[in-house]
Design a protein that fits this description.
This protein is α+β, with helices and mostly antiparallel strands. The protein is built from 2 helices and 9 strands, in the order ββββββααβββ. The chain has a single domain (3-121), classed as Nuclear Transport Factor 2, Chain: A. A hairpin with a 2-residue loop joins strand 7 (89-99) and strand 8 (102-112).
Length: 123
């Protein structure tokens, strides 16, 4: 699985990585991690490139949601559904929290189509 290399900007966002004006790509588990980050942080259909077509989450719809267990479960299920749409992902499990109106994704664990478990970590 290939994806664009992402650099954590340190403020909860990511930026694409360039070398000599070309996008860097990454494979393997790091590529899968970057696909998860793209899927979760991009709005649905935000990018037109084929790999991102009909990808992205509805996370923006939940921004002003109050911190309740029911709301966290709703967001968790929505994000897991988004992640499960990534090619090669069979299932996912995420741990989230909402603090001061900010959604924190503390951990993402995937089960790939080949049965292997991959811990992506926090986003």
């Amino acid at each position: 699985m290939k994806d664009i290399t992402l650099t954590n900007t340190g403020n909860g966002t990511y930026d694409w990585t360039f070398t000599d004006n070309d996008l860097e790509v990454v494979n393997g588990v790091t590529g899968l991690r970057n696909q998860v980050i793209h899927a979760v942080l991009l709005r649905r259909d935000e990018l037109n490139a084929g790999i991102y077509k009909e990808k992205g989450s509805f996370l923006d719809d939940y921004v002003k949601m109050k911190n309740s267990e029911k709301n966290k479960e709703l967001v968790k299920n929505s994000l897991e559904s988004t992640i499960n749409e990534i090619s090669g992902v069979y299932a996912s499990n995420i741990t989230i929290d909402i603090q001061d109106g900010q959604l924190l994704i503390a951990n993402v664990t995937l089960i790939r189509d080949d049965g292997r478990e991959v811990n992506i970590g926090g986003i």
